[in-house]
Amino acid sequence: MNIQKYTATLSGEQGRSGLCIIFRHPVRKNPDGSAVRVRRGLGTKSEADAQRLVDQMNGILSDTSFWTPQAKAKAEALFDERIVNAFYDQLMPATHDAWGLRGEIIPIPTPDMGYARARLLGTTGAGKTTLLRQLIGTDPATERFPSTSTAKTTVCDIEIVIADGPFRVAVTFFPREQVRLLIEECALSAATAAVFETGKLTSPAARLLEHSEMRFRLNYILGDLKEKEEELSDDEDQVAAPPDDQQVEVTDAEREIMSGQIRKYVSCVERVAAETLAKAEKDLGVSAKKLGKQDLDTFQELFEDELRQREEFHRIVDGILDAVEERFEVLAPEGFRRDRNEWPLLWQFETDDRAEFIRTVNRFSSNYAPNFGKLLTPLVQGLRVRGPFKPAWHSGSACKMVLMDGEGIGHTSDSSASISTSITQRLSDVDAVVLVDSAEQPMQAGPQALLRTLAASGHEKKLIVCFTHFDGVKGDNLPDAKSKKQHVFRSLQNATNSVREVLGRSAESALNRAVSDRAFFVSNIQDPIKESAKMTLSELRAMIEAICASIIPPPPATATPVYDVANLILCIPQAMAAFRDPWRARLRLPSHSNISPEHWTKIKALSRRFAELGEIQYGTLMPVADFILRLSEHIIVFLGSPIKWEPDNASEEMKRQVVDEIARQVFSELHSLGTQRLFHERVKEWMVAYSHRGSGSTSIRARDIEGIYDAAAPIPGKAGNENTSKFVASLTHVVKDAVRKAGGSFQ
Q1: Is the pLDDT of residue 129 over 60?
Q2: Residue 615 pLDDT > 60, yes or no?
Q3: Alpha helices, DSSP H only, in 382-520?
Q4: How many CB atoms lie under 10 A from the CB of residue 537?
Q5: Angle between helix 652-678 and 445-457 (nearest 10)
Q6: Which of its termini does the chain have fewer beta carbons within 10 Å around, N or C?
């Protein structure tokens, strides 16, 4: 059998870690079967030393006996550590717990220390980060922390520990591989725009500088492209000159240099795109301009695959990645913790100077346009700070709170939509969930989806609601503040009433009890609050009291439920049908759901996230979250309807307390079960689904994904099989274990 030969070469350009080695890994494969391309810094600028290391790598690549994890010890005895790591890190990629890394520097204090932990959630633009500014007392004009805007701004996890002592920050970053993939997708999008699209808003430069998900923006890091002509605008609110204490770090000269470098990147992308287009048209004997929509989609997919195979394209991506990595050099080197490839995992900083601290931390969280080119915001996975924060309007005792912010729950038209697992897996770690919603258009589908998730997971007692923009509530039938509050609150009651249709009256009643005295209304919180704003100040102070009171434990439960396992098994087919049918609609397969089909590019991007990035969602496509929520909704209905209660005269509130305790345990375990079944056990299948190319690949990929769901989330029926039986057994074990831990039993 002929074995493909693999050869390492020395890159002609230096990265941050000196000269680089490039090779195709003989074991790690892309979904299309091609070998993964590896580029690694060698930590030397000596060409002789670098060539010696390249020769060592070629020794490994030429000997298949080194191509297993077990051979690492042998390789360590023969080769330089840098070469061993470059090869075997790809076989056994390291995993890093970003939450845990931040916790090593700044632990999250717990309720037994007197701290209440609150997570702020809301749709984009509702004002949750603006509310956070008020709760920690940062000035919106002079400090700008955390950043806000009308668009998607907060895209990383932010945890703020209010405590005495110096100001401290611990920042964790996305892995190099993930950053490179995002840069590659931006460059690919720019190349596609260069040859298939026209117009300023879809220009190659615009596509390069902002990822389609709007979570990764290269212009924050590399600077913006300075246009020769200013855009005409009706908006008079131009960017104002910064106040004296707002440091603008980018000079006009630096901005010109950055703009010139971006133009070079765009020019390189356009050139390689044009060459790739010409080659693809010649090889296929077609003209892209004359193709119909379906054929053009297929041609574009083939164009992208051809582009990914070109070494010149990867050199462009490598160059951008090097420029991104250089931006870390402005930080104090002693604050870093790096991986073996010298990519930053974490950076920490401490000072007693509040102004210095805010300037420093804004580098990781700001969206301030004058500083584009020196911001690291898109690279930040999580940001945890600790310090003596306190709003000027709070005159009571010290606020012993941990306030958590993050990406919003998004805008959706579907109240049954799932909430990201990045949010739901942390619900057990918080004592209060503050739903921030606009009083002008309250309780749209997104907030309703959160209410439904909290009730299905047993976390509804943690709910606190803060209605912002209360000053915008107007109407001839609303003459005073009381009538306006009643008007807005009725929308909340209508939202809780809708939960009853899915989760039953017990869930509705529990939500109503939770919000009866924990709904707050605030106005004009985007500015420092004046003492004359008595209602808003009173509401904010009361909300802090509600957050702090969330750590008071409930009285011990005195009721125990008794269940019939047959009723549990009966609810599983309904839950899985509720998961599977909408996904068939998204995949353009026969379905009874009214869910709209998703564009093929989004389905392809989702399969790539599972196959290559180790992520379990893409945008609003969240199969694991859907799996968890549909099961939780049906299981909590089962839990709320035991065959009997002991004693049978227990109060409804006490019964719900027991049901919630069981549901929270089940919900937590379902995250592990869902991730295991839909992701870890199916990585190869996701790689196959992503690998399809050419005509008909969309429908083939859809059938492959449906096959993944069929294996991971089968719908139990009359004709069972071993896989379905194991699934039902694992699920019943999760529920039984949670019931017994809460003191319940099965008949």
Answers
A1: yes
A2: yes
A3: 421-424, 445-457, 481-503, 505-515
A4: 17
A5: 100
A6: N
